[in-house]
Specification:
The protein has about 290 residues and is an alpha+beta fold. It contains 9 helices and 9 strands. The strands form 3 sheets. A 5-stranded antiparallel beta sheet has the order 1-2-3-5-4. A two-stranded antiparallel ribbon has the order 6-9. It has a two-stranded antiparallel sheet with strand order 7-8. Helix 5 packs antiparallel against helix 8 (about 230-250).
Length: about 290
Amino acid sequence: MTDVTRAIAAATSVAASLDLPADDAIVLHNSNKLALRLTPCDVLARVAPVGQEVAQFEVELAQRLAEVGSPVRPLEPRADPRVYTRGGFAITLWTYYEEPLAPHTSPVDYAKALEQLHAGMRNVDVPSPRFTDRITEAEEVVADPKCSPELADADRKFLSNRLASLRRTIADRGAVEQLLHGEPHPGNVLGTKNGPLFIDLETCCRGPVEFDLAHVPEAVCEHYPGIDHGLLDDCRQLVIAMVATWRWGLATSSRMGGGSERNACACCAKGRLGRRSTPRRSDWMV
């Protein structure tokens, strides 16, 4: 039995124990977590190996944000808001939406929803890492050839220097920091009939709002008030450098059940780091 098969069995078993009929499961996404549409109950189940404590953080944060009216995907109302464990997997249950992802959301609505999310996050006090923790993780991947064995020496040096210099530049700006989504790119936004909803809260961290804005299309930023455009450009450059790093890391693109993908090279990132640009949506599907 494969990991995916076992994960599906665990999720359907949990649903059945809650009197949620789950005769079938459709795999919606398979990365470090498995996203399943359980039918006919129409519940979204997120499944990961036990030991990823971030699941509890995500559930608690979703509850807190919903209480202050933030635009986030709600938990499944027919189940207790908690992490369920079954067969070595941690399972969380969420409201399923038929609606498409953010490409169908207008930049104005996207920007308003992100501004509303940030406002709600300023009213939620939860322990969370800083965005600089991700820079540290990226630096560790670049520094260790065992973690990035196919990264050429020249590209390794370039990425290392770029990550370090951007860390200093952003820190020197002394921007106000708050709780952020961490990766509010179009792949983490649902375009529902009631407006955009943000999903996948496991990436939340503290930092300047421009770090979040560095993940969204430029057209969205045009409608977000009070942006420090110099800081935004620095954050865009940082995000591109980190994406390039994750693509070279052995463990960052694994799927449940084995296998990995690596679709870009640091030398390509080197060319993009010299100009202002927003990572394509495909850059996030790693």
